[in-house]
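lol so apparently i was supposed to do this last week
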Amino acid sequence: MSRLVVVSNRLADPRKPAAGGLAVALGESLQRTGGLWFGWSGNIADNTADGEGHLHTRSSGKVTLATVDLNQNDYETYYEGYANSVLWPVFHYRLDLADFNTRYLAGYRRVNQLFARKLKALLRDDDIIWVHDYHLIPLAAELRALGCRQRIGFFLHIPLPPALMLAAIPQHEWLMRSLFSYDLVGLQSEADVSHCIRYMTTEAGAELLADQRLRAHNATVQVRAFPIGIDVQEFRRLGQSQDALDTYESVRREYSRRQLLLGIDRLDYSKGIPQRVRAFSELLERYPDNEHSATLLMIASPSRDSVHAYADLRHELEGLCGAINGNFGDLDWMPVRYIHRTVARRRVPGLCRASRVGLVTPLRDGMNLVAKEYVVAQDPDDPGVLVLSRFAGAAEQLKDALLVNPYDTQGMAESIQAALHMPLEERQRRHRALLENITRFDVHWWRESFLAALGASSP
Ligand code: F6P
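anyway here it is w/ 6-O-phosphono-beta-D-fructofuranose bound
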């Protein structure tokens, strides 16, 4: 059997809590198949005289982890720059936050070339290579340029925006052309697939063949949706851990006379966190029965805080939370509890289960796995309600959530009120339907269906 080689910018580090769905999903799914996981070490180091980052390898269960360090300049231009100040904002429909500094592209290309060189030395002829996310879009093109002939698939964990928005990236033609070096491109949703096909046929002159295959530049690539899922059994097991049970008990005790609403995100402008706080404020304003009762617990783990837009968001949020607590809070009740720290993953199921409402309200999101975890953590006899943004990729699958428009403050407040007062029978019915979908399309379905399609693609 071929060895699976996974490549991503960030790897799951068993010594640290994983931030973001990618590392969790890949970590869990690679433990099943075994293989090689290649990416950035997470370290910034002075590189050696030849300008190459050191390669470190170690084993974790059935997986060999191979990582390279980045130097300070590459970190700034590739990671903070092109990946997180160009591609991240544009792919999340935030052209206003993009910084098209010309230094960034050179760093992005340099690191993709570095990854290709280091990885090539580790490859076997019959490896199957699976590249992940926006940091590494041109990696297959760089590998091909070095003579690699293996099958290579790509999965984009974030949304793919409409063609005209992509066209705002000065190097969009080069970037999108590099997708033709892959045999298969996987996206999170059907909306993303339609954007990709439209871009390729209108901007890149590609021909659309059967089975969502696109032909241009003497190459054919198939583009399909593979919505990512969670490891349901693993998350359930986590929910039975002592930490999760203790967390559940202590939160229940503390909020026994209150209704808890929960949000767990990386502190990112795509997550719609200020919009959520405004909707919560509107809820308290419009429906005073929630005073002294509804409490919004928001856990926003620190993320990319050296990028300006993230620092700005942090200040905005601190101001908003302070204002709402000042306006509505009382001696024995603070409406918003905002925590800007990472909470241990093993406590997450307990927090979800203890909350009456899960608020997942991004302005745009590739999928959002917290939405799925919230549902799985619930007690089926007395489940909480998932309030989900229609702009999360998960909304294509989770139609039994209460779908909201996070830009509509009043509408979101009304939906939260409906969630807080939803009759038990409706909560149970929605929960059953959501759970069925999440269990069926779990992370193993995602991995197996992607790899089966990659195996079947013409090399
Ligand atoms: O899931 C999307 C994603 O951007 C991943 O690629 C990334 O690893 C994760 O979010 C967390 O972000 P970062 O790696 O920048 O800390």
